[in-house]
Amino acid sequence: MKTKTIKSFAEYVEYTEKYKGRYYFRGQSDANWGISPYLFRSDKPPTLDFERKMIAEKIFSNPKLTPLLALFEMQHYGVPTRICDITISHLCALFFSCEGNDDGAVFVIKKEEAVNADSYEMSLFSFVLEKDISNLSILQREAGNAFDVFEVISKDYLVEYKDLGYTNPRAFRQGGTGIIFGFGRCGDEIISKGTPHIDDLIVEKVIIPYSVKNESRQELRKLGYSKDMLYDTLDGYDDVSLTQTDFNIQEKASFNKIIAKYRINSLYFDRDKLALEIRKVYEGLFAQYGENARIWTFFYFDENDCGANPNWICRGVWRNDTQYAIEWTQSYHANRLNHLNEQISSQDAIGKYNDLARKVLPYCDSLCNYVEKPNYSLTGFFSLVKEVQPVISEIFSEANNIPFSDATTETFINKAQLFISDVDWFARDMMIYSNRTDLKEQAIRWMIDRIYLPECRQSKANYFKAQMT
């Protein structure tokens, strides 16, 4: 097994960047431990009947659960199961490796080996865990003779994150999925504990020296990776201070319109104390710009909360019946962790967006060049639009499905995404106008010349400029 020993938090982040989005991770506080579920760590593990009883009780309390989902939820709330937690997040894995007083380790695990929760393998596991069948011969008859049933149920499987990560609050915060370990046999009897065979799933073992753990814990806490965040037990306690980072004012005849952003100094804020600080902000703005000012404010912790789809801690909004009201993002901390967990590497994100921008570029040029010709035919242009619009729409959809990356990379990505979006907007609206009879040709030509063409040209230029900087 390939191993790498890191010497600092910064080195760990840099080294594991290439794995983000492509691999799963398992953090363990002792580098000498192998990967094994809690259920298998005893010489006398619980019987299969005991497992079935626990699962049945869980499903009775929530009939919507499958045996696999019941196991996964129990695992995340401290019940010994045959599932071993893994995560999509290199940072979450690092957090768990930093517990204890020994050197820790983060295992990098092959993501492409994962199976779906509704795969045949998991269906067979569920069947064994739910039905009172412990005899291999009977199970073989139930499953048919197309394959060796024990060969299937004795293996260890990674389960797709998308099938488990959103099934309970802790899994969501931890970017969690799992390895489900296979069954064993004693003669013709199925027994609970099998022999782990996961070495082929591990790409690398990153050693986290004890000397690095304290620094890593501190840096992780700043980002939100702490026990009370990851286990959804946070009860805000920190005092807060606010720093204004953006301010825009529009002076109107009868009132001032203000839009401002503020950075909060702690993720672990006490909401009541934050509300008092927000009140002070408003009192100061009203004193300076008049009691009838209409003010909108946005509050965030760092650049990870901003971007194309911002995750504000809260907003202050003007309403007709009050000077301002605070709108809280109820799942702010969970959304923040989820955003960080699901990030892909900067290299992957830039590569994916560049590929799509290059795909849309010739279609952009063909549309723009056509309408820049003197006395172009609008009928001919609409024919061109009908030909290229479906392809442009597909490229736009692909761009919208690319996961987030880090905040710095997102600055470039926003330029690429806007370019692709503007080309899609141009083609999509032209498809609509080509079927309308209430618009005069002169009006359509004016919109193309004054709105769509300049927007596409400008976003294309901004994209290429961002590539060079």
Can you offer a commentary on this structure?
The protein is of the alpha+beta class and 469 residues long. The protein has three domains: 2-230, no CATH class; 242-338, no CATH class; 344-468, no CATH class. It has 17 helices and 14 strands. Strands 10-11-12-13-14 form a five-stranded mixed sheet, covered by helices on one side. Strands 1-9-4-2 form a four-stranded mixed sheet. Strands 3-6-5 form a three-stranded antiparallel sheet. Helix 15 packs antiparallel against helix 16 (407-434). The longest helix has 28 residues, at 407-434.
Keywords:
alpha+beta; 3 domains; 4-stranded mixed sheet; 17 helices; 14 strands; globular
Quick structural overview:
This protein is α+β, with helices and mostly antiparallel strands.
Write the SSE topology.
Blueprint: E1 2-5, H1 9-16, E2 23-28, H2 48-61, H3 67-76, E3 83-87, H4 90-97, E4 104-110, H5 120-130, H6 136-143, H7 149-153, E5 157-158, H8 161-164, H9 169-174, E6 176-180, E7 184-186, E8 189-191, E9 202-208, H10 210-223, H11 227-230, E10 242-251, E11 256-264, H12 271-289, E12 294-300, E13 314-319, E14 322-328, H13 332-341, H14 346-371, H15 378-400, H16 407-434, H17 441-468
Parallel strand pairs: 1-9, 11-12
Antiparallel strand pairs: 2-4, 3-6, 4-9, 5-6, 7-8, 10-11, 12-13, 13-14
Helix pairs in contact: 2-3, 4-10, 14-15, 14-16, 14-17, 15-16, 16-17
